[in-house]
Amino acid sequence: MSPTSSSRSSLYTSLYTSLHTPSYTPVHKSSIVPSSTTKSTQFSTSSSSLFSTSSTTTTSNTPQPPSPFSVCPVTPLLSTFTLILIDLAFKRLFAFLNLTTKFPSALAACLTLLSTFFLVDRFTPQTSKYPVTDGSTSETLFFHYFNPGATLLSKWLALFFVPSLVTLPLIPRPPAADLIKLAVILPIGFLFSLFSTAFLVSSVTKLKGLSKVSPPPPPDVTPNVTQDSEVLELSETPPSPSPPAPPFEKSTLKNLFRVSKVSFVLSYLLTRSFVSFPVPLYLSNFLRATFYLSFTLSSFVYGALLPPKLTSYLHPLITCTALTNLAAVFRGRLVSGLPYKEELMIYTMKNLMPATFGAGDVLLFLLGPAVVSLSISMFQKRDLVSSNFPEVLATAFGSSFLGLLVTSLTSKSLGLKSSLSLSLAPRCITTPLAISVSNMLGGIPSITAGSVVVTGLLGANFGPRLLTIFNITEPTTRGLSIGAASHGLGTAAVKGENDAFPFAAIAMATVGTVTTVMATVGKGIIKRIVS
């Protein structure tokens, strides 16, 4: 090993030890003994330990240094940029092979990257892996490079289908009869997916003959010192719930809103009559796109920072969509002089040319990398999938098949137009994949995005309550049912259920993937059903 490599390794080891070595010594319950020399014992407590005594337990295991990527501040941007490049490469490849309309290139990239993770992990020795943030597992450097980018994209994932919702007013309004049919199909489809998945999972669990109830988490144990006793007695106390961390910092909202204000003022000044010089088209377009992009981001963050009781019914997507449409009204009157719908048309221009791109085009462009990043989440949960493989398999294939079939048959039985029926087919999968499926089937992406949001809101607001009412309390069943029936929004609703939440995330990813594959292979059958 070179001196440089040795010093770098020493630096990482020192840094990791200073940051992660606890100031206490964990003591097992069996190692606590009465003290015969003193009636008071000093100890230090922590949320992850019991307490320490004068006897020190040493360990020979030196903590492994963190991955170099975990201490690099630009890694999230670098890994996100790499995910974008992978998505672009597969788009070019699929266009060259004339496969664009046959299978989503982003999903192919996701599955390819997932396979690569397994291969790299298989041939990487354990000694060459680095611990993840929570310290639960160790992963390869290849994984650590992509993980920050996936985390960044997942934080903003819901925002990437805002353009389809913002531009909903531009779609010709369906007849009132069709709107009523849509209002009937979506709740029926959600309820069927929720309870059919619960039935499938519970049936598979019974066939396995195993109880899937997770053991309760270990209670917090605190020392109970009495004045007349020299023995430290352990007493169990219920954990005190800590308030959930806000999804975004308030400074993020302030900075984004500041950018939107500056870009709005500059656009206003450049369009006034006292500006005698010609304004370059790319400059005016850049200011317009910057305003809409920063305002969309800031309104989404604002909606996410509202009180939890309000956001449980008013999702940030709804807040963001409403405020962005309101911004289009004011900008049209004060800056461009365009009517509302004409102003809204320039929100998404369906290209990324510097002189004509819109804010919505930037967000839609990131849908592909967001789909590719799902491979990181699926790989990270591989052990959980392996230990519950029959349940996950039944959910992925059973829920996907029944969801597509029942939605198509219900739409057909109610006489819904084929374009609307095809738009509803992928209603219960995450939006990036749903829009891809809608495009392949010939649906209307904005209607698809709206149906996905409504389905997600139904799952977030009523899914856990309905399962509880019907006495479905087993964590595996609850998580898989919510994730399969209401994708990411429903998954977020069970984030407080520590045992159910991972299964909801698994169901969201696997059902989305399998549904996309099924829709691709059987799109001819689906079209015949709804026509």
Automatic annotation (TrEMBL):
Q: Where does the protein principally reside?
A: membrane
Q: GO CC terms on record? A: membrane
Q: Which UniProt keywords apply?
A: Membrane, Transmembrane, Transmembrane helix
What's the protein's topology in the membrane? Multi-pass membrane protein
Q: Where is this region: Disordered?
A: 37-68, 210-247
| Listed InterPro entries | CidB/LrgB (IPR007300)
Name of the protein in question:
Uncharacterized protein
- Origin species, per record, is Triparma columacea
